[in-house]
Amino acid sequence: MTNIREHIILGYAIPILYFLMLIFVGGLNALLPSLIMTLAFFVSINYVYDHNQSLFTISNIICIVGFFIGFFLRYLIIAFEPSRLTVFAPYPLIGDMYGHLKTSLYLLLFIVVYAFFLRMSKRNSFVLQENQNNLENTINDFWTIVVYIGVLVVSFTYTFINIRLATQLDYGNYDQLFRFVGSIVKMFAYAHLYLFAKRKSKENLLCYLLYIVPTIYMSFIAAWKGTFFIEILVLCIVFHTGIKKIKKKYIIFFAFALLTIYPVISMMRDSYRYGTVVNYNVASMMNYNINNNVFFYYTDRLAYYDETYYALNVSSSIVEEYKASAGSILGRFFSGIIPRVIWNDKPVVNVGSHVTYVLLRYPISIYNNLTIGLLADGYLDNKMIGIIGVAMLFGWLVGKNENRSHSKDVLMQSYYVVFGKALYGFLEGDVAAKCLGLIFIVVSYHVCWFLCNKKISCCFKQN
Fold first, then answer.
1. Ramachandran quadrant class, 251 (left: phi over 0; alpha: psi -120 to 50; beta: rest)
2. How far apart are CA 425 and CA 398, in angstroms?
3. Residue 361: partners with Cβ closer than 8 Å, 6 or more residues away
4. 161-185, pLDDT tens digit by residue?
5. Rounded CA separation 191/140 (Å)
6. What is the pTM of this model?
7. What confidence tier does 133 reach under pLDDT thresholds 50, 70, 90?
């Protein structure tokens, strides 16, 4: 009876309440886009969000952050305050009924296709089962830890050397190689975190701290706010494995991190930028949150609806100029694989500069390297076909990755987290570069498995 009541509340009552709020704020003039957004919300909450799993799974986190916050909550905020639409652009677009209708229709299409391929890839899958004890002992082996520490030192040394400013990371010619090395580091680090969660071993905790402490330190000096929350989510995923009901301590922990880390990093960045002296205490953090509105900061940061609206409604001449400059997703993807010796005039893989200076019309004098959301990236590539294509790809990848979470193999569980972090990055768009990153992660997993130097028996088990 309790499960039926929860299903009715989550699956039907909340979407109806969402629709009524949209009508109350936007009026009957926005009836059609509000109805379509509500239908997309209904599909998301009933067919994308997995009620049989914990909140802290990669699939559910993507659903909450990417859909519930990035699209549905954002659309509600814009209905309350239309001036917040596309505030990230130097020349924001003015919202109108036709623009919102077009955006909501394409969003519904994306979510329906994504939900279908997500559920199909979960259903038709195989999970790799390893010899658990052998692999855990091998990861804790002396020489495996020595290799882990070696690649960790190389990776962090390269990253630290290339930090130029507090807000900019300027990689050199070996960034792709060291991104691969970084994936190996994360694979081992999260494996040790899983072992610590299971065994409460101090050695495993120390190996994880060797990764997380330098990561946090460099995130502070470079003011990478997103790193903190992603690593906090990783902790929640690891320690919440197998638990379906969320514990209050996780909510309190995450809310505390949200309200303390954001002002500390922001105040630190302001201190570096303006040379001011800041007192990092409770009073100053509370004052910063009040004056700068942490809620609007994060919803503006996750403005996937705005990015989609902008891409769908900006001048067609600007879109054509952008496409001529950035090229296609497939072209940028193969550009990252094929050496320049073979393909001399290949396009640039990272689409950020094209988005910033061509699509959004940022002045060249203002440094930025913005990307635009996944749905917008697909539309700009090939309109409706592009949206369907990225939805199919994303749904299939997320579903396949969720099957890894059922494995008892600690390295496979670590693979699930590292691959999931990369999938989370898909929400920001730049599909070509993100797919290249996934290839590095797949290769790094097999390298880690090989470095364990054990003949581990495995079999494929049908789900």
1. alpha
2. 12
3. 89, 90, 91, 318
4. 766 443 343 444 556 667 788 888 9
5. 10
6. 0.85
7. low
Contacts of 208-214 with C-beta under 8 Å, sequence gap 24+, read 210/149, 210/152, 211/152, 211/185, 211/186, 214/156, 214/160
Q: Considering only CA atoms, which of 11, 17, 12 is closest in space to residue 34? A: 17
Structural contact between residues 46 and 11, judged by C-beta atoms closer than 8 angstroms: yes
Query: Ramachandran region of residue 168, left (φ > 0), alpha (ψ -120 to 50) or beta?
Result: beta
Does the pLDDT of residue 463 top 60, yes or no? no
Say if residues 117 and 319 touch (Cβ distance below 8 Å): no
Q: Six-digit token pair at 341?
A: 């010796």
- C-alpha 128/C-alpha 130 separation (Å) is 6
Contacts of 355 by beta carbon, 8 Å cutoff, 6+ apart: 322, 326, 370, 371, 372, 429
Q: How far is CA 56 from CA 1, 9, 158, 390, 426, in A?
A: 25, 21, 32, 24, 18
**Torsional sign, CA 231, 296, 88, 291:** negative
Cβ atoms of residues 410 and 241 within 8 Å: no
Backbone angles phi, psi at 314, to 5 degrees: -70, 160
Going from the C-alpha of 338 to that of each of 201, 332, 358, 400, the distances in angstroms are: 44, 10, 25, 27
The count of C-alpha atoms lying within 13 angstroms of the C-alpha of 292, restricted to the half-sphere facing its C-beta, is 17
Could you list the beta-strand ranges (E) of 97-240.
126-129, 163-165, 168-169
DSSP string, 439-455: HHHHHHHHHHHHHT---
CA–CA distance, 411 with 264 (Å, rounded to integer): 34
Q: Please state, for a pLDDT cut of 70, what percent of the chain lies above it.
A: 74
Instruction: Give the span between the Cα atoms of 387 and 395, in whole angstroms.
Output: 12
Is residue 246 within 8 Å of residue 55, measured between CB atoms? yes
